[in-house]
Amino acid sequence: MAKEKSVYICSECGGTSPRWLGKCPSCNAWNTLVESATESAGGGKNRLSQTGRTGYAGQAQAVTPLAAIEATEVARTPSGIAELDRVLGGGIVEGGVVLIGGDPGIGKSTLLLQAVDALQRQGLPALYVTGEESGAQVALRSRRLGLDNSQVDVLSEIQLEKILATCESTQPAIVIIDSIQTMYSDQLSSAPGSVAQVRECAAHLTRMAKSTGIAVVLVGHVTKEGALAGPRVLEHMVDTVLYFEGDTHSSFRLVRAIKNRFGAVNEIGVFAMTEKGLKGVSNPSAIFLSQHSEPVPGSCVLVTLEGSRPLLVEIQALVDSGGPSPRRLSVGLDRDRLAMLLAVLNRHAGVACADQDVFVNAVGGVRIGEPAADLAVMLSITSSLRGKALPKGFITFGEVGLAGEVRPAPRGQERLKEAAKLGFTVAVVPKANAPKKPIEGITIHAVDRVDEAISLVRGLD
Ligand code: TYD
Ligand code: MG
Closest ligand to 144 CA? Predict the structure, then answer.
């Protein structure tokens, strides 16, 4: 067969070009053209024309009404690692493709080795393909994890075609590709790790998963900006995308489902990195609180919702006199949102920070995406500005709008109950979230507007 020739496809609009260009000729986007091996050297226009029948699109096929198709439940195998099964939506799915991303050294290889060993012990043959480490290094890790006499097959290989052939001959139930950035296909001339290679290898592995029922887990690198290296299409291609989060300096790790065709998204699994690998934390609601014996200024506890469970996270703010161009920095929270909240504070609550540096941090390396963090961010900023701590046992949540209104957060009752369970005693919440019946142990103040929340907190001093 003729070796396939490269064509360049725009990752934005799908337009093609026979050679690489900085700007897409179709949609004028910059740096979007990526190499792809879809054109045959025979000069045809697409794969179909490789048969020599240009324009022939195959025979018409019978179609089936949706109602006549039987909806079969997907077969899942729980790995036995409860926190991982939770983010996967119950377990590994036959023929499912999972992409798992995260910073280097965060624990991707560790978690996957633990998972495949657990699956192998349940009788599911597993293949661990390592492109980054040698077999000896993987073995060393397995000894450290205490996985004695593990029967997981290890293959140290980076060429896609050889990996596919090995899968065909050994017939595993699950294959780990650690990592997709180290793999390369013979079909393309570009180097491993290039966008074209990553995409092509992932596409082949996905096709193999779907046609054979082998579950595939791809490990992906994360760029400095926090996105998975490689084109966005990688995330579109797979069934499930998991991200490892957390501060490498602390022992806690979060695994978050960003996309899941077989389960709920934004579900999180919480782990602690120990001497013997990752251990699930089954009751994580209080791990993101720092341990102050007395309340300190600039600290406010937020009850956030991660997937189906409430988590208490301490938000810290430091407001300090800045230079001519004051800085606004946030860790774990959106910086644009911080700028917006400062503008709302100024306009609707008369709290001006224009000449101040403002730093905001979510404790423990957790990333908070939900807008219900707004009120906690604002109250921690005002607390730091005044140099006055919030009352002991104080929690809050609620979104703040540009007009200074406080909007309700989903599942307020659950958040309040979790906080009460952990011994928090005072809450400021959006009016619509105030429960009809009191919750034992916690005094709830309902507010409509941000200035109301700020003066209410002052009154609690
Ligand atoms: P690793 O799984 O290699 O990270 P990744 O594949 O995401 O790059 O994890 C490596 C880190 O985890 C390393 O800093 C050592 C630490 N670690 C432990 O603390 N305990 C253990 O049992 C293991 C295996 C690793
Ligand atoms: Mg690794």
Answer: 1
